[in-house]
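Hi Y.,

Following your request, here is the sequence exactly as I used it, all 111 residues.
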Amino acid sequence: MGLFDKLGRKPRPGTVRTAQDADVSHLEAFAASRTGVEGFVEPETMTTATTLVLVAGDGEWTRRRVASPKAAFDLGRRLGLPVYDVAATGYPNRMREWTAARKAAGEPRSQ
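Below is the corresponding structure, written out as tokens. Let me know if you'd prefer a different format.
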């Protein structure tokens, strides 16, 4: 539960949302329930905290906030997943192909 949840308030517009326990739990569950999962760390921006994209072997993917790039690499190490800096490697083609197939079928693109 985040600070704003405890206080019963929402963060002000324009503030960067940080990672929550539920974000890490989601990433752990995704990795545990799929094969061939790799991680891709996305850098923090003015409006978005650092995020970790997990991509399964079939291209299915999910994105969640993480506390820092170090936290993303540590999570990957703990889960036994290779994790890459997306600025250096880009996204895998299977991710784009999975997204395109879902879009063509009218399905949601990610979780």
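The first strand starts at residue 38 and ends at 42.

Thanks again,
Q.
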